Amino acid sequence: MKKTQQFLAKLKLPGEDNHALEPSKKRFPDGGQYRIEIPSVEGPRVFREVLDTAQAYKVPIHRVSQGSGVMLLTDDEIREMAKLGAEHAIEVCLFVGPRASFETGGQAFSTAGKVIGLQHRGANQLVYAIEDVRHACDLGIRSVLPADLGLIWVINEMKKRGELPRNLVIKSSVTLPAANPATAKVFESLGVSTLNVPTDLSPAQFGALRQAVDIPIDTYIEVPDNFGGFVRYYEMPKLIQVAAPIYFKFGLRNAPDIYPSGAHLEDVAVRMGRERVRRARIALDLLARYAPGARMSPLGSKDLGIPEL
């Protein structure tokens, strides 16, 4: 194995996981080690309820993300979410649609075929996805959530050529996770701004990914049931230690999968949004006890994809 490990070192990749849990010296540009993200904020009403609950529980929020897709929000809803994000200096990240599970093909619903994930099938679907990104940016959004590696490459090329805002955040999806340092490095080289990883990596594995890339890592600290259902609050201090800079996301155990969401599920989405914020308060209290020196990023940092009106 030594020869292989030496070759990986030439590629600036670790040859083994970070079993020693060597601390990460990397930080967000503002000097912070971690940030808070509330996922599944499926529309402006949910966003407003999340903001109200965050104020009640004194929970700082750096980013909210949405999973149903740009195409399932009205223009007025996107504008309202952008306005709320701009007013509160919070990044608003919208998923790109349509994707394989929305389309007419059946593979995405078969037992083995689920490997296709939420990618885009064919050239037409790729065009539709790019149109979704353009539309979101035209309405002020500066953060998108793609689940297709080719789409990530195209979005980054469009940023370089001025077709999309240069400050557009590309947040890779947990349905397209980087499971090892080499994959993480590929994602970073293609323009991913923040990197989602599998929900079940150990701290040592997180540490290996961190050694390979500089971009922030995103991870569920409470994982939705359909991604494993893990509740990892007590691991947060160790994950900050080895994987900073890192976003902590709060899914919910024992909660329904509401994608694609809409008015018919809005009440459920609102209640789930409130509970995610309450869970974040619990996690922050734990961090105060066990990692009082951990540094949270200040709100409104320049590298966040805060909407521009």
Largest beta-sheet details: 8 strands, parallel
Extract low-pLDDT stretches: none
Rough shape? Answer: globular
| N-end to C-end Cα span | 54 Å
Roughly how much helix do the residues carry, as a percent range? 25-40%
CATH superfamily: Aldolase class I
Question: How would you characterize this protein structure?
Answer:
With 309 residues, this protein is of the alpha/beta class. It has one domain (22-290): Aldolase class I (TIM Barrel, Alpha-Beta Barrel), CATH 3.20.20. It is built from nine helices and eight strands. The chain has helices spanning 2-10, 44-57, 75-88, 122-138, 149-160, 181-189, 203-212, 236-243, 266-290; strands spanning 34-38, 63-66, 91-95, 143-145, 169-170, 195-196, 217-222, 246-250. The chain has an eight-stranded parallel sheet. β3, α4 and β4 form a beta-alpha-beta unit. The longest helix is centred in the C-terminal third of the chain and has 25 residues, at 266-290. It starts with a helix and ends in a 19-residue tail after the last helix.
Task: Give the arrangement of secondary structure elements.
Layout: H1 2-10, E1 34-38, H2 44-57, E2 63-66, H3 75-88, E3 91-95, H4 122-138, E4 143-145, H5 149-160, E5 169-170, H6 181-189, E6 195-196, H7 203-212, E7 217-222, H8 236-243, E8 246-250, H9 266-290
Parallel strand pairs: 1-2, 1-8, 2-3, 3-4, 4-5, 6-7, 7-8
